[in-house]
Amino acid sequence: MAPWFSLRWFTPGQWQQFHFDHPLALYAIPAVLLLFGLRYLLHRGAGQRLSLSFSPRTSPRRDLLDSVLNRLRYLLPLSAFMAVALILVALARPQIIREQKENQSEGIDIMLAMDVSSSMTEKDLKPDRLTAAKRVAQTFIADRQNDRIGLVIFAGEAFSLCPLTTDNALVKQYLNQVNHHIIRTSGTAIGDALARCINRMRESHAKSKVVILLSDGDNTAGSLDPITAARLAKAFDIKVYTIVIGRPPKGAASATQTTDEGILKTIASISEGSFYRAGDVGKLQRIFAEINRLEKAPVRTQVYQDVQDYYRVYLYWALAFLLLALLLKNTIFGNILED
């Protein structure tokens, strides 16, 4: 910072940075100015004055010098006013406050289980089911800054691709690498995928544990029954949201008659989660938005303030003006007839 005697302390830019702890003291400055003005008006005609002149001879140059000397007499009341005004500024306590906010959240553990079987290349969702699911999932992940997120992929087998982590960029990087060729075994192992998610979360102490399972088919592979996996999830207080991706097969009288909904509805029901069907990208986005809204952990915001006081600067200036006033009082600029 600048030294106290710098004129920078009186610039508008500097004053805009200040927060005044007692701003009412500043309102007294116009009152002091008014008192000085009243004193001048009341004593202007009645006061005794001494005129300053260096020579009885008159000349334009001499008259100008005498006029300047007489006007310099106003330095004394001006210095006194500045001293009082700066004392009031110091009493207002000018401060510069720097705030730092820190958001704290208990967070939620979320495992994303994504079907990567060959049927996910169907194009009823643009550009295809898997790409649409990846894009919407990435947007969802970007909004979960305080949560741990992991990734499981499955087709005929299930693999844990990314463990629970708060590094959202890492999760999104793994998600970008997902494609329908990554698992060669055909089928849809929903039970095994759910078991992989449970295994990642069983020792978690998070307040809320969630699995989001996306698939477009019935359970046709794997060694673990999905109903058993759902009961395990319930035992570990894990809530499962199941999402069927794709439009109902042609020839089905209604969406409820498709073979891929029954098991996913049962899993959601057992684990006290919810079941959804995403027939288009817009619906899939709304589903993730709803899950995002339902699974929110309270965030506590702590504000740290670094407060620096600068009243001493203006006290030093006030003392300087006060000393100047006392000095002027004992020179030719003081009116000894009014003392």
Automatic annotation (TrEMBL):
Transmembrane segments: 24-42, 72-92, 314-337
UniProt xrefs under PROSITE patterns: VWFA (PS50234)
Top-rank taxon: Bacteria
SMART domains in UniProt: VWA
All copies of domain VWFA, residue ranges: 109-291
Pfam families xref list: VWA
Keyword ATP-binding: no
UniProt keyword annotations, A-Z: Cell membrane, Membrane, Transmembrane, Transmembrane helix
Coiled-coil ranges per UniProt: none
Nucleotide-binding keyword on record: no
Alphabetized InterPro entries for the sequence: UPF0353/GerABKA_families, VWF_A, vWFA_dom_sf
The protein's name: VWA domain-containing protein
Source organism of the structure: Nibrella viscosa
